[in-house]
Structure formats: C-alpha cells, structure tokens
Amino acid sequence: MNKRLARGIKPLFLLLAVFLMLAAITPASAGPVDAAPVVVVEIEGMITAGKLNFLVRQTADAVIEEAQLLVIVMDTPGGLVDATIKINQTLMNAPLPVAVLVAPTGAIAASAGSFIVLSADIAAMAPGTTIGAAHPVELTPEGSTPADEKTTTFLAEHLRSLAKARGRPADIAEKFVTENLSLSAWDAKDTGVIDLLASDVGDLLEQLDGRVVEKDGREYRLHTAAATIYYPEMTLSEKIQHFLSNPQIAFILLSLGLLGLYFGFSNPGTFVPEVIGGILLIMGIYGIGLFDTNTTGVILLLLGAGLVIAEIFTPGFGVLGIGGALSLMAGAILLPLEPLMSAEWYQSFRLTAIGIVLALLLLAAAVTSAVVYSRRRWKDGGSYFKPPQRGIAVSDIDPEGQIKARGELWLARSDDGSRITAGTEVQIVRSETLRLWVRPRKDLPNQDKGAKEV
Prior knowledge:
By secondary structure, the chain is α/β, with parallel strands linked by helices. 50% of the residues lie in helices and 18% in strands. It is elongated, with a radius of gyration of 39 Å. The termini are far apart.
C-alpha cells in the first residue's frame, strides 16, 4: 500500500516542479522587455502658444507610438491663460495616463504651472520645489497689474474644478488664485495636492511601476521600472511660436510694427518701413494672443503673395519682393500641422515655400545689384552722360542756334546775347537740360586752345 502511494505521489511532485520552473522563468522573459515606452516632455520657462503646440503634438505622438505614460517635467513661472487652459483640456482628455513632475530641485510651478499640475493624472514634485501663487495679472506696455475680479473668480473656479475632477483638495486649489497661496513640495504632499515626491524622472518611474491609474472608466497598469524613455525636442516652428508668444517680445514687435507703419505713411516712397512694419505688426498681434497660430500663418502667406504680386507691377529696388518672400517663409514656418493634413504634403509645401523664397531673394539681390551697378556706372562713367565742353557753331547763334559737339547737334544760346557766326569755335559755359549756353573761345582768356571737341 505504501509502495503504491509512493508511486502515485512521485508524478505529482514532478508536475509541481515543472510548474515552479515555469513560474520562475515567465516573469524574467515577459517583464520590462515588452513594456510600452514612456514619453518625457520637458517644459521650461513661460507657458506660450509654442509650448502648447509642442505638448499637443507630443500627446498625439505618444498615442500613436502606444506609449504607456506621458511625463511632463516642468519648471515655469507661469504663462498665457489661453495656452494654459488648452493644455488643461489636452491633459484631461488624453487617452493615456499623464504625469507632471515639478523638477529639478529648486524648480517652481507658479501661476499657470499650478493649473497644469492639478490637471494631471499623477502629480509629483521634487524636494525643494514650490507650487502656487496663481493670482492672474494683466500685462500692459507699462508693466503688469492684478487682473479684475471677474477674471480672478473665473480662474479660481476653473482651478477648483480641475482639482475636484482629479480628487485633490479644491479649497486649497482655489486659494492658489484668490490668496496667492504657495506650498512647498512636502506641504503639497501632506495636503494631497500632489501624489508623490520624486527627485527625477528615474525615481518617478520606479515609484510608478505596477501602479494602476484609472481614467475615464478605464484602468491602466504601468510597467515603468525599465521602460524605454523618449525625450522629444521642439521643432523650429514651435521654437519660433514660443519666441513670438513671449509677452515681452510680443509688445516689442507690436510697437516696432506700429512705428514702421507710422514712418512709412509719413514718408511714402521707399516701402521699407511699411513692409517691415506690417509683418512685425502681424507677429505682435499673434504674440499677444489675438490671432491663433493657424490664422497668423494664413495671413502671412496671403500678405507674402500680395507683396510679391505688387513687386511685379511696382517699379523699385525689390523691397516689396523681399518683404513678400520673408512673409511667405514666416507663414510657412508658423502654419502648424493639422491632424487631417498629410505630413508628406505639409513637408513638400514647406520646402516649396522656402524654395520660392530663396529664388525671390536671389532675384531681388540680382536686380538690386544691377541697379546699383548701373547708377555707379552712370556716375563714374565717361563723358557720354555729361554735357560737352566745347564745339563748333554750325549755324549763326543770334541769340540761339546749333553747335556740333562729339559728333552730335546741340541747341545752343549765346551766353551774353551777342551774335556768334557759323564756324566759330565755342566754349560751353553752362547747360540746362539739352540747351547749352556758349561763348566764342577767343572771348575766354586763359582757356586751353587744344584739340577741338567735335
């Protein structure tokens, strides 16, 4: 009986050993190797339209690349309200988990940064960082002033709504706006404003490994401990948009544009101040937020085409053509890639626009060089463009007649009113247009009696 029992138990032990071996092998073969990538977007400085477009593009790319997590590493003193609210919408509606990390140590998430942190699925801060101070201000050429009560109330309620949607303390979020409240990283963690303290991206991903994030009724399990990390960069278009939408730069461009138009209309003729002023004015209006990126790109393209056409029908030195070329290039760079627009078509369009611009600039440079050379040649050339110095009367000059000089007939008039007979050698005293005032050479003492100019 014992022998039969032993023979029956032995296969069970062998089967159990096989299962244990498979259990030991499976995690090693299926863990981090198959983990989806993590996209890390670094946001530093002012929150502008350029940063908005960069973040929107990276969110869409993260979804296309099937990334498991989008991480925003942020250090910002604030930014534009319109761009901030659109970033909130992007993060809240992104079809993947979004984590915001205020880092490195010493970084801040002030004003607009507070809105972005509170709209994230996972909020984290590095030790030694600060969040808050979100009371809105209005920027003017003279400086900044506190926003009116209506704007303050709206933004306070908006931040309260973001915090409540993410399960964070709404009353503290509201005080960021109404009382300019600021919190250190430790205080933000203790009050529930943020979820984690993490010194850097690596620390954050280690803490998030295995975490389950619930968003829009769906659960996402993160495997971030050894995931592949991508750090995308801003494109040239986004960098230019970020530069132009800086409020200080925008006011400078707006002022220069208005001055250019003023000087151009006050002293018409050269077209230089008007063209430059018009382009700068459009960019300044875009910078202060009255035009969105699409509208600005289209306006610059239309302005460039109009200036190029005007150059064809307007005599000048190529100023309109050069201005049109620069406007076309700026419009092509600023025009963002739309979701329904083919990337290949957009790239081809941009290259075509840049090619046309370069061709126009080369043509304008060639025309300008030719005009300058022609003027210099006229100024420094031979005596063909100058009135003659002497000649011979071919008819009686009493008081008017004709002389022959340099093989040509010229209308002449006696300088002192006396009669000059035909065949007399004369000296030209002065000229007005094509009429010459002459005197007989014998009446002019100390004159060179050299070769005749006939």
